[in-house]
Write a structure and sequence with these properties.
- It is a single chain.
- The chain has 328 residues and is α/β, with parallel strands linked by helices.
- The chain contains 13 helices and 11 strands.
- Strands 7-6-8-5-9-11 form a 6-stranded mixed sheet, covered by helices on one side. A 5-stranded mixed sheet has the order 2-1-3-10-4, with helices on both faces.
């Protein structure tokens, strides 16, 4: 009995010691547990890391703003250590990511280019913008189009006097070039704002028709013009990253980066396609701009990218070099 108790006590002590030495990383995001990235990116990343480290380092996911409501403060939460890892949009803290966000603007990247791949082919050029965090993932979604609550947009003049929600400063500049008023707000507020008429519509990829239920308040969709493309990121607190042992950092690096980012792009694009098809099946109306109407939209914004690049170059940010790299 004494021997048995000794063995049992040693096993318990070992279990307690292992548990005490285990590292649990907190990953925060603002969407639901049904969100496509929660299911297809965050959960698989958590499972892979736990398996690779034998449970010594795990990721606990906090969805739906559990560590702080709303997506706008996600960057602050990872900087302050409220979360070890966050899913966020650079556009919500645009002043920190001026070079990164050039990718949003039409004309910066050649048509038909995989923007996520172009970013990662030149990721070293963004080092200064991510110096306060460890960059785990950076990817783009499907092209943004106009989701409208009540107003049908068939020509550029149809936007006159309308209020369009935007996710970033660059998207706002595009909307204003088209003659509408840009209203900045996080995606989590758009449903109510469209429903109550605070905004007339939003410029965004169509995944939100399902993921944030905007299909319920969208009557018309207009597409066919050159528009923006939102950028998404998964970033980690620098101290949390440095606190991992070398082997765990290596394993987490192998699971993230360019490969995971391409997976994020595919996930977002696929979700957009599915959501749009479902919305059309439910009776939604899509307006495909005529060639003349699309040309009018594009003419109104065709100097925007050059203007933004010149401004950033004037601030000492090598926007011209970044744009040239993305086109090669």
């Amino acid at each position: 009995m004494t021997v048995f108790k000794s063995i049992l006590g040693a096993a318990v002590a070992l279990a307690i010691s292992t548990f005490a030495n285990a590292e649990e990383l907190k990953l925060a995001h603002f969407a639901s547990i049904k969100y496509h990235l929660h299911v297809e990116m965050f959960i698989p990343l958590s499972e892979k890391l736990a398996e690779a480290t034998g449970g010594e380092t795990t990721i606990r996911i906090y969805p739906g703003g559990e560590l702080g409501a709303g997506p706008v403060k996600q960057y602050d939460r990872v900087i302050d250590g409220v979360a070890d890892i966050v899913y966020a949009l650079p556009g919500y803290t645009a002043s920190q990511f001026k070079k990164t966000l050039l990718v949003e603007l039409p004309g910066v990247v050649n048509p038909g280019t995989n923007k996520t791949e172009a970013i990662w082919d030149n990721i070293g050029m963004l080092e200064s913008e991510f110096r306060r965090t460890k960059l785990l993932g950076l990817w783009t979604a499907g092209d943004a189009i106009l989701l409208m609550a009540e107003k049908k947009i068939e020509t550029l003049s149809d936007l006159d006097g309308l209020k369009i929600r935007v996710p970033s400063k660059n998207t706002g500049r595009l909307i204003e070039a088209w003659g509408a008023t840009a209203v900045s707000m996080p995606i989590t507020q758009v449903y109510q704002s469209m429903e109550t008429g605070v905004v007339d519509g939003t410029l965004v990829d169509t995944s939100v028709l399902t993921s944030f239920k905007l299909g319920e308040v969208t009557k018309f969709i207009t597409r066919g013009m050159n528009a923006t493309n939102s950028v998404f990121m998964l970033i980690m607190n620098r101290d949390s990253w440095d606190g991992l042992d070398d082997d765990t950092r290596m394993k987490l690096s192998e699971m993230t980066g360019a490969g995971m980012s391409e997976g994020g792009r595919v996930t977002m694009t696929s979700a957009s396609d599915r959501a749009l098809a479902k919305w059309i099946e439910g009776g939604g109306e899509v307006i495909d701009l005529s060639a003349d109407a699309a040309a009018e939209f594009n003419a109104a914004s065709d100097t925007l990218a050059a203007a933004v690049i010149a401004e950033l170059d004037g601030e000492g940010i090598d926007a011209s070099g970044w744009a040239a790299a993305l086109r090669n």
